[in-house]
Amino acid sequence: xxxYGAMCVYTEYAVVVFAFTKIGQGPKTExxxxxxxxxxxxxxxxxxxxxxxxxxxxxVSWSSPPLETVQGVIKGYKVFYGPSDVWYDxxxxxxxxxxxxxxHLHSLQKYTDYSLQVLAHTSGGEGVRSQxxxxxxxxxxxxxxxxxxxxxxxxxxxxxxxxxxxxxxxxITEYTVYYKEHGKSDSEATRQKLLPSQLSYEASExxxxxxxxxxxxxxxxxxxxxxxxxxxxxxxxxxxxKIASFDExxxxxxxxxxxxxxxxxxxxxxxVRWTVRxxxxxxxxxxRLLPEGSLLIHQVSCDDAGEYTCHVENPYGQDTITHxxxxxxxPHPPEIILQSATTNSIEVKLSPSVTxxxxxxxxxxxxxxxxxxxxxxxxxxxxxxxxxxxxLQCGTRYQIYASAYNQIGTGESSEVLNTRTKGKKPEVPEVxxxxxxxxxxxTLHLNAWQDGGCPMxxxxxxxxxxxxxxxxxxxxxxxxxxxxxxxxxxxxxxYNLRISAHNSAGSSVAEYECATLTVMGETPEPxxxxxxxxxxxxxDNVTLQGISEDTDCTLDNHQPIVDSNSWLESVQISxxxxxxxxxxxxxxxxxxxxxxxxxxxxxSVKQPELEQQGRADYLALQRKKLLLEIEVLELQKxxxxxxxxxxxxxxxSHK
Length: 655
Hints:
- This protein is 10% helix and 40% strand.
- The chain has five helices and 47 strands.
- The radius of gyration is 47 Å and the shape is elongated.
């Protein structure tokens, strides 16, 4: 099985397979064609238009997205539509799926402005929605007026009241009031036309003690609508207490004056009592009782929201109405709680404020800000209870808060939620897994670093000879893949490396000390390097770190540092094969270019002359080898100092 990435979405590829050896490649298989998986359309349908056909039908048409952006085969289209005044609420939208580029939307609300969007979908998923467009359905005849109420206001007069139709289906042009005596036909009814703003009618000079029937209709430019429910009433000298108002829901803006209607009729004049949330209302500067029985509230606040009941009574009857007062103020701050987190997402839970459940909420805005970046926000519907913030930075602290909004404005923000995505800074690797040396270069195996759960962004690589104070920048943007080689280094030389690895969670810095190999590809002996630096640079306090058997490097603070003199005293020169174990010599603590004299064996020790001569020859060869290496180091020092004196040296990139 073989996989290959970095291929284009929904693209046809030709594939052949062949085997090869060191001699050459074998025959190819027959070419076969295959498509990569489908994606989602990257652009919305084009030229979206709508046309109103009737009071309940709209035609919608469009053209497909540009073919080069489809990334697959279009399986169909989805049309999203709903009344524009509640378009912010996803639950208010309907969806129609079609295969063609035109469709009719039926059973719509009459005389209503609709918003519409269209998207294309493939087997890979849904594409991008088009920008909303708007169409209004035509007018139609209205529904019947609501809550028709007839009141006796005198011995020969009746007051008729009503509310507008729940669905006017257009612009009301007039109301028509009908009334007749009991027992007469509808054709004998008296008819009175009224302006659309008039919601009451007083019928006077009626016959005493007779019963009457009343009803009302509403009209638009299309025609007269349905008749209301019938209201029956009989005239009498006794006028019971009645309220010429209806139960209503009042929407008041914060700090405005509100008048709750309770127009009272009756003889004798009825007593009027108001209660709010079950408690009696005591008139004061904030709440005042008007002469006709209505209640005036001055500069309403959120605390005034609730149910208000007007109760009237006289000896002949009683009546009550209840109003609900909603204050249109910005919503209270919502509550936001952490649900869960991953390396690139955070899920939060949203709840409306528990201090007020009467203020309408149209939606929420969630704000989120990473620790060292700009704030972003996203709007979600009012029905949202959990939301997942995605495509976040790994291992990063976030501040998250939310606010609710309605048509009045945006409320205060919630408390700030401090959290973070999962993941941590890169982990420093062991030396032998990361660094590899040669005589003129150091290879860094970047994959040895553990990313801490967050993808690596880049490395910064610096180095310097150990006895130099200035760091040399190799690169500040090393890609976190494969290997990286620092070249043009000197053989048998100590170098300091400083590597910083960066991901979205932060950065980790590690320093290493490494010795390049000799020109012969051998691991340099510690005393050779230490004494050479001592002689060439003239430094008295030279120190060396322990050398790793695999890399000739150490990670700072991972190995003890020892003085060069004590190290030299412990270095033993191995005798050639066949010599006595006692035939060894200790290297001197002070470097002496001249070969040291070999002390003769004590007289008491009898050794063959050949063995003694062999040991002396071997020691002389070892000394010559060390002197040659010193000469090489002196030449390297001169070359190094010459390079330092050149202005171009510091401007040259060392890789």
